[in-house]
Amino acid sequence: MRYLYKLIFKLFSWRFEGSVPKDLPKFIIIVAPHTANIDFFVGIMARRVLQLDSTKYLGKSQLFKAPYGFIFRWLGGYPVDRSKNNNLVDVVVDIFNSKERFSIALAPEGTRKKVDKIKTGFYHIAKRAKIPIIMISFDFGTKKIKVNDPFMTSDNVFNDFKKIITFFSSSAGAKPQNGVSMDLLEQMLPEIEKLQERYSSELS
Fold first, then answer.
1. What would the 3-class secondary structure string for the chain be?
2. How far is the C-alpha of 74 from the C-alpha of 67, rounded, in Å?
3. What is the pLDDT of residue 59?
4. What is the pTM of this model?
5. For residue 74, what pLDDT is reported?
6. What is the C-alpha to C-alpha distance for residues 33 and 6, in angstroms, rounded to an integer?
7. In the beta sheet, which residues pair with residue 31?
8. What local confidence, expressed as pLDDT, does residue 1 receive?
């Protein structure tokens, strides 16, 4: 399927910019802008072309039961049992800590609609599991799938989110009006300040 997907991207003049290091054992991928249903199909094909077959997306454990559970697994799903712990971040951090190799991908916007902030769960996971973040954008404007170099979270939360929002704001989604803009950085300042206070206190 990898060669078929590469052919499809070529026929539609899509290119790849960057790649994911093959020797990286653990990481979390964040993908944006997520503005339309077509993103799912682009993601499925890009996942195979980038040879990220072992990278999963998270889903409720109930989705993976018979008779249709195999479909979600085939599409790269990983079941998460939240019945004993309602904090998804804790659950995912435990998974990372229990495995030698593991990676997941998620859309920080959490919806195809225009958002005034991005969800911060991925940041908590990366910080607490001590794993790098890899940003991947689907730029429908230039027809490029851009892969940013892995980076670790720093002691400066504002700079981390500035880096993230700046990267994604340079890409136009299938519906550009719903994409990530630099305005999000200012709108997220109160939340960023809380994150900074939290992680600064943990370091002290």
1. CHHHHHHHHHHCCCEEECCCCCCCCEEEEEEECCCCCHHHHHHHHHHHHCCCCCCEEEEEHHHHCCCCHHHHHHCCEEEECCCCCCCHHHHHHHHHHHCCCEEEEECCCCCCCCCCCCCCHHHHHHHHHCCCEEEEEEECCCCEEEECCCECCCCCHHHHHHHHHHHHHCCCCCCHHHCCCCHHHHHCHHHHHHHHHHHHHHHC
2. 13
3. 64
4. 0.88
5. 65
6. 21
7. 136
8. 85
